[in-house]
Inverse folding.
């Protein structure tokens, strides 16, 4: 399985209702992470937050 997004890409993150509350919006891909089952994962960062998040590829769209 290959990652769809590369480090430095800008993506739109949609928070899942099941997971912790998170702000939807544009984020930068900081790092590609190992897959979780059948979904690639990424470390992403918003310019409006002081911390990074982990997101599944299914939660991301090209910005």
């Amino acid at each position: 399985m290959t990652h769809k997004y590369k480090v430095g890409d800008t993506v739109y993150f949609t928070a899942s209702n099941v997971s912790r509350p998170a702000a939807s919006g544009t984020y930068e891909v900081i790092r590609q992470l190992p897959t979780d089952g059948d979904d690639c994962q990424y470390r992403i960062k918003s310019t409006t937050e002081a911390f990074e998040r982990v997101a599944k590829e299914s939660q991301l769209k090209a910005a």
